[in-house]
Design brief:
37% of the residues lie in helices and 14% in strands. The chain has 724 residues and is of the alpha/beta class. Strand 2, helix 6 and strand 3 form a beta-alpha-beta unit. The protein starts with 19 loop residues before the first helix and ends in an 8-residue tail after the last helix.
Length: 724
């Protein structure tokens, strides 16, 4: 057999069932080693083999004789002969041969015919060949979509093809239920469909609408128009749900799912929102797939919509409810950039759906008699908010305000925590601070540093059971002496530990301080990788930058680690220039950067601040000995864009909420997954001004035994063997 040109099989990827002719072509044009084949998976085999059969049969039918009035009859006869043969082959084992070649049609007995024809779908084709297009007993004949209900299609607003708008109108007019998912809805878009929507939702004598619609949308960028939602929500049988939190919801999907009791549903997925521009003249692409032709795709779209519909992030909108209207107005104004204060719900401040899940898990643990609970939740998911709602529930259950002690190691953490409790309880006088030399008016609801609790001997002074609820924030510090003494001495009715990183650098476990679940796990656990999957945190771009610094002599996780790193990086002008160069290269315009720069020491932080400012990058050094005014004002200046970076050492690793930060520079190499995750967590909070966080990790060169897998596992949840 002569060799065929290699051009017949160009190099590249394929996903093609191997036929005899393809095998011969491979052997002739490639040889033994220049290709890859794999066995066809058993679960995929029926569909993939049917694809080959359908493609081959379509070509045969097309070429079956001349174009005349008899061609459909010949095609019909061939298809029915083939169906008879396949049925016979499936029910008899006496047909010789493996390929089925050379065997004519086989008649089936009446019982076999009845079994195959029972559903009215898989029988022989009737003569002449026809299509059932509708069943409409006592109804007007519905207008069918021009594309039909079995074939896929790509809408591109091209000339000579059906428009997306006209097909949506036809689909709406002939379906039983509709699910719509769009980022925003405008009045111009609703107007294009209002006539058909009013017609299909008209109620009958029993006040039942002809068609029911479920609509999900958002306030993202403030583009949704309230008047449009009013028009839709006032129609019979239409329910509208809206996400009011533009920071979390990055909903870019646009989908229309038309359900039909006949089983001939269809779905449209693409880039078009419910606006006139998108449906009529916009440069939009939309793919149509069908329940009959692409059953698995249709089922996935339907299931995903159900998941979103049940997500409490999307709240029901009733245009006759004044509270709903006010909340929607505020959300749209805020998302449009007009700066109204954040208010994310239609009602009093309520937990988000994932936070409610945490609260339910805590409640379930206490029903089992476990009242010393550890809550592990990724930075940015609202551990303190959950603690405040948990306290509010305890208030409702017990009556009044049970005594509360909230302990942390930094004043900034305590101030934010008290503010959170005040918001949740709707009481701006709630709680007293015990920090430094201040003396609180009352110790009944106290937010105190661990230093103050220890130095003033509060447990001895008031008694181990004085407080009903004790919350220990950043409780991975429990194994430290002062936290350990407090946890072992205190005897509240409820002890709640909060942390994003329960693992400690020294390997000591904190689980022993709590009553854990039967499998040994914490009462509540929402890790970083889970929060990212749920879109509770901002996506990030991580770059490990080799700055040529040789860290191979550093005694990782041993005494002298910090001093050794400090000697290598403080005063290292070459490394500083590399840091600045990589930042400029990867970020583009640094004027939009809101960066935290983590350094190894105070001296290193001051050195890097000088080098950044010398390069024209506005930076401010904030470290432990900075004044309280500087520590308060620097984040505000960074948020306003007056500076581009805060350079720090061990000050903003944990417990401080700076959601506007969009860049992290990790200049302090570490083998500690705890420190690594804490620093990265500073940039992952959601904020309307950022779509992702840029993370530059200046890793240098290490010994071969440096465990990068420990750091990456803290972000991904994957074990060493699972990492790429």
């Amino acid at each position: 057999m002569p060799r065929k040109s290699p051009a017949l099989l160009p190099d590249g990827l394929y996903d093609q069932v191997v036929t005899d002719s393809l095998q011969q072509l491979i052997e002739a044009s490639i040889g033994e080693h220049g290709f890859t084949v794999a066995d066809l998976a058993a679960e995929d085999a029926p569909a993939r083999m049917a694809e080959v059969l359908a493609s081959t049969l379509a070509r045969i039918l097309e070429d079956l004789g001349e174009e005349d009035g008899e061609k459909p009859r010949r095609q019909l006869a061939l298809v029915n002969d083939l169906l008879r043969y396949v049925r016979h082959r499936a029910t008899h084992s006496d047909v010789p041969g493996d390929t089925g070649a050379g065997h004519g049609p086989h008649a089936l007995d009446p019982r076999e015919e009845a079994r195959f024809d029972a559903d009215g779908v898989h029988g022989l084709l009737s003569s002449p060949p026809r299509l059932l297009q509708a069943v409409h007993r006592n109804r007007v004949v519905p207008l069918r979509p021009e594309i039909g209900l079995a074939m896929p299609w790509l809408f591109t607003a091209g000339r000579g093809t059906p428009s997306l708008l006209s097909e949506l109108q036809r689909e709406l007019g002939a379906c039983d239920r509709v699910d719509i998912l769009v980022s925003f809805i405008t009045q111009s878009g609703v107007r294009k469909l209002l006539d058909i929507l009013q017609r299909i939702t008209a109620v009958d004598a029993n006040c039942r609408p002809g068609t029911r619609l479920r609509i999900l949308t958002t306030t993202y960028t403030g583009a949704t128009e309230m008047q449009a939602l009013d028009l839709l929500a006032r129609l019979p049988g239409v329910e509208v749900r809206v996400s009011l939190d533009g920071r979390r919801t990055r909903l870019h999907a646009k989908a229309w799912i038309f359900h039909r009791d006949s089983g001939f549903g269809s779905a449209y997925v693409g880039s078009a929102n419910l606006s006139a521009a998108a449906m009529m003249g916009g440069l939009e692409w939309t793919v149509k797939f069908t329940e009959q032709g692409q059953e698995e795709l249709f089922a996935r779209a339907r299931a995903n919509f159900e998941t979103l519909w049940e997500d409490r992030e999307f709240q029901r909108y009733d245009p006759e409810n004044a509270v709903h209207r006010t909340a929607l107005e505020n959300a749209l104004t805020r998302e449009a950039g007009h700066g109204l204060p954040v208010r994310l719900t239609f009602f009093d401040l309520e937990p988000k759906s994932y936070q409610q899940d945490m609260l339910d898990q805590l409640h379930a643990e206490r029903l089992q008699g476990r009242h010393r609970n550890l809550l592990v939740a990724a930075t940015g998911t609202g551990k303190t908010v959950v603690a405040a709602f948990d306290y509010r529930r305890l208030c409702a259950a017990q009556g009044g305000r049970p005594r509360l002690l909230f302990v942390a190691h930094r004043e900034e953490i305590l101030r934010q925590a008290r503010r959170t409790y005040q918001e949740v309880l709707r009481d701006h006088a709630f709680g007293c601070l015990l920090v430094g030399g201040a003396e609180p008016d009352s110790h009944d609801h106290l937010f105190a540093t661990i230093d103050s609790v220890s130095s003033r001997g509060l447990v001895d002074r008031f008694g181990a059971d004085y407080w009903n609820v004790v919350v220990i924030d950043e409780c991975h510090r429990l194994a430290a002496n002062r936290f350990d003494a407090l946890a072992n001495a205190i005897r509240p009715a409820v002890l709640l530990g909060l942390t994003a990183t329960p693992e400690r650098s020294d390997g000591k476990s904190i689980l022993g301080y709590f009553q854990n679940r039967r499998d040994g796990s914490p009462a509540v656990e929402l890790r970083l990788w889970q929060a990212l999957d749920l879109q509770l945190l901002c996506p990030f771009e991580y770059y490990a930058c080799d700055d040529e610094t040789d860290f191979s002599s550093v005694p990782w996780n041993a005494p002298g680690e910090t001093a050794a790193i400090d000697r290598l990086v403080t005063g290292n002008d070459m490394r500083a220039r590399m840091v600045i160069h990589e930042w400029q290269r990867l970020a583009g315009s640094l004027s939009q950067s809101r960066a935290l720069v983590f350094c190894v020491s105070v001296g290193h932080a001051r050195f890097m601040t000088d080098r950044l400012n010398a390069a024209g990058i506005l930076a401010e050094c904030v470290v432990g000995d900075s004044s309280s005014e500087d520590r308060r004002a620097a984040p505000e200046r960074l948020a306003r864009g007056e500076i581009n970076a805060i350079v720090t050492c061990d000050l903003y690793n944990e417990g401080v909420d700076l959601p506007f930060v969009n860049t992290l520079l990790l200049l302090r190499p570490t083998q500690s997954p705890v420190l690594f995750q804490q620093q990265i967590g500073r940039g992952l909070r959601l904020h309307s001004s950022k779509e992702s966080c840029l993370i530059l990790d200046f890793v240098g060169r290490y010994r071969e035994d440096f465990r990068f897998d420990r750091l990456l596992s803290s972000l991904t949840g994957l074990h060493r063997a699972q990492l790429p």
